[in-house]
Amino acid sequence: MTKDELKQSFAGLLQVNPPLQQINALLDKAIECGALDITNEPAGDFRMAKIIYYAILSKMEEEWRPFHADNRKEAQNLRLFL
């Protein structure tokens, strides 16, 4: 596989599984779930947004985690370089 082929494969994956749609759906779920007290959060502060974003990315990480141990090991190694 060439670098361009890999980029095309990655782009295809993102088209089939658009991350922004999933992020927005999980944001809506987070806002409606009742676990957050946003009434006392100051407007313009990113604290709660970062908490939600972290939780969303953590949830997505669980869903996209490679099943095979060798693939998980390769992904963990790649994280060291990002």
Task: Describe the protein in words.
There is one protein chain. The chain has helices at residues 3-16, 19-32, 47-64, 69-79. With 82 residues, it is mainly alpha-helical. The chain contains 4 helices and no strands. Helices cover 70% and strands 0% of the residues. The longest helix is centred in the last third of the chain and has 18 residues, at 47-64. The relative contact order is 0.08. The chain is elongated. The mean pLDDT is 95. It starts with a helix and ends with a helix.
Topology diagram in text:
Blueprint: H1 3-16, H2 19-32, H3 47-64, H4 69-79
Helix pairs in contact: 2-3
Count of strand segments? 0
How is the biggest beta sheet arranged? none
Strand content: under 5%
What do the pLDDT scores average to? 95
Proportion of residues in helical segments: 55-70%
What is the overall silhouette? elongated
Pairing-aware structural class of the strands and helices?
Answer: mainly alpha
Low-confidence stretches: none
Distance between the termini: 21 Å
Number of helices: 4
- Helix-strand sequence: HHHH
Cα-based radius of gyration, to the nearest Å: 17 Å
Concise description?
The protein has 82 residues and is mainly α. It is built from four helices and no strands.
Can you tag this structure with a few keywords?
mainly alpha, 4 helices
